[in-house]
Amino acid sequence: MSLYKQLLIGICLFTFVIFCGNFVVTLESSREQYRNQLSAHAQDAATALGLSLTTHIDDPTMTELMVNSIFDSGYFYRIRVIDIKTNKPIIERSDVPQNTRVPQWFVRLVHLSPGEGDAIVMRGWTQAARVEVVSHPMFALARLWNSIVASFLWLTGCSLLFLLAATLLLRRMLRPLNYIVDQAMAITRREFLNVSALPKTPELRRVVEATNMMVTQLKVLFSDQARRTESLRQEAYHDSLTGLSNRRAFDMQLQSRLSDEENPAGHILLLRVQDLMGLNQRLGGAKSDQLLVAVADILTGLQRNYFHHEGFVARVRGGEFAIIAPLMLGQDLDNLSNTLTTQLKALSETGMSDLSPVAHFALVPFNVGDSPQAVLAQADQALARAETEMRFFASPDTAPAPEREEDHHSWYTRLDAVLTNGAFELFSQPVYACNNAHVVLHHKILARIKTREGELVPAGRFMPWIHRLDLSRRMDIVMLQQTLQELAKSPRPLALSISGASVADDQSLNALLQPLKSAPQLAAWLTLELDENELPDVERVNVLVSRLKALGCRLGIQHFGGRFHLIGNLPQWGLAWIKVDGSYIRNIDSEDDKKLFIEAIYWATRQINLPLIAERVETAGELAILENIGLHGAMGRYFADASTLGRN
């Protein structure tokens, strides 16, 4: 029961008790007073009538006239004049005065006795008659009733005014408690709020100050944990000189790209600075370090301009760098090669190296299922040929035939038909609770397209063309519509990936959310997921989260781990979950650095009660480590491969 209801009931009970007490006291004090008044009234009437009849007792007409005049002048129940000798009434008048304002239950409750009086009528020295007068208590009951009603109205009015004043006062005084509730609810949403307006009441002020201190401390603990985790990641997976990822991170990313059929094919660019050891001896370590940093800046620029931040840049070792890039066509390869050659020549011309070429690089393609060792060996062979021939760039001997222009048209025709007809084949992969492989947390939606021959094409083959042909927004809308259709048939928790392009601006976001607005009853079953690398700026994510929350939908992050600095923003976003990239999960049971990193992420997210889910779990050993750490859920081939959505 709420405090306001308790207050209302309390005031009503208090008013009732006061009224009852006042009624009892008033009744007891008034009853005796009114009884005496009634007795005096009856006795006075009897005495006056007895004296008046002394000279007219033998005149029946005058006697009746006097009795009638006395009876009609007051509240009398009965007046009798009795002959003393015969003890028979000479004249008698009786009646019950009517007063409809006094209810009968009140008359019965008060039970006020009528007053009685008598007097003797003399005839000379002889007693001739006796006058008996009984007064009716109606006038006393009327006065008592009016007094009780006035007291009740006064107490009720005062109680209502007090209740209103107390309600307003309590609402004002207890407003900080609502803020405290908001603080607690915000913490469950991974947000940290402080109450700025402190109450004036000392007791409540101390409570609010304590909660503010608690929230601040939680925020500091989370921030410290996030900084420690980011520092751990920097030490484990980053090169301290160039700021790029190191060989360990590169191997993880390459293995992840080659082992997951959902990933598209791509290219590896391998670059090696010529004679780095000799440069150290001739120009000094500081000059060599400047050259390495300059090369790292060039490769980062290539990633930004050519791959739109999708490429993965790393310093493999010494003067050797690598980029894991999306698949590029012939013209793009030529532009990339020419740009990189020009920038490397500029380094030589500015005197950062006394050798020309400053570095050699090679580009080799890879496909899902290739061996990392084979891909790197092929790139190393091409690089060795470039070094032997003293030229900047070399392609592998087994370079694929360049894409033909009609491939653009054929892929666009195929994908446009799928998007127009909403003909994606929906598959799903279950996400299980880590500590209970029988509990399914949700299903992750995967897309396939079917060829005319009935062959299912995985996302890794057609997604590069979706991005290249700028069809990401259309695909997200179509996939969302198809997913909602499946939810209408069988409601259950589902997760659907969307692209960063669909939430980059208000127009795209409105188009994406339109299917959810058309089916609000299904939105609560769906969680949209954004890739870590496609997250927009912080303010844009805030807008996205608030828009989704208004529709009953939620947002999650997938493939998390490469941009750990984002974890500082997680409390204000109120995410559904975070899915850790499979590259940090693979062989976690045998690689301690991955285990330490996942533990750090877990403890950082645990501070804000944010569920952590592992992607691409493939062995029982990996699952055992994740269970021991305490992760919320896991998905991967160890549990089940992707299957048609309708089968789950």
From TrEMBL:
Domain HAMP stretches? 171-223
Q: Which UniProt keywords apply?
A: Membrane, Transmembrane, Transmembrane helix
User: Domain GGDEF, which positions?
Assistant: 264-395
- Give start and end of each EAL domain: 408-648
Q: Which positions, given as ranges, span the membrane?
A: 7-25, 148-170
* Family matches, as PROSITE patterns: EAL, GGDEF, HAMP
Report the CDD domains cross-referenced here. Answer: EAL, GGDEF
Task: List, alphabetically, the PANTHER family matched.
Answer: CYCLIC DI-GMP PHOSPHODIESTERASE PDEB, CYCLIC DI-GMP PHOSPHODIESTERASE PDEF
> Which named protein is this?
EAL domain-containing protein
Give the originating organism.
Leclercia tamurae
**In the record, what lineage is assigned to the organism producing the protein?**
Bacteria, Pseudomonadati, Pseudomonadota, Gammaproteobacteria, Enterobacterales
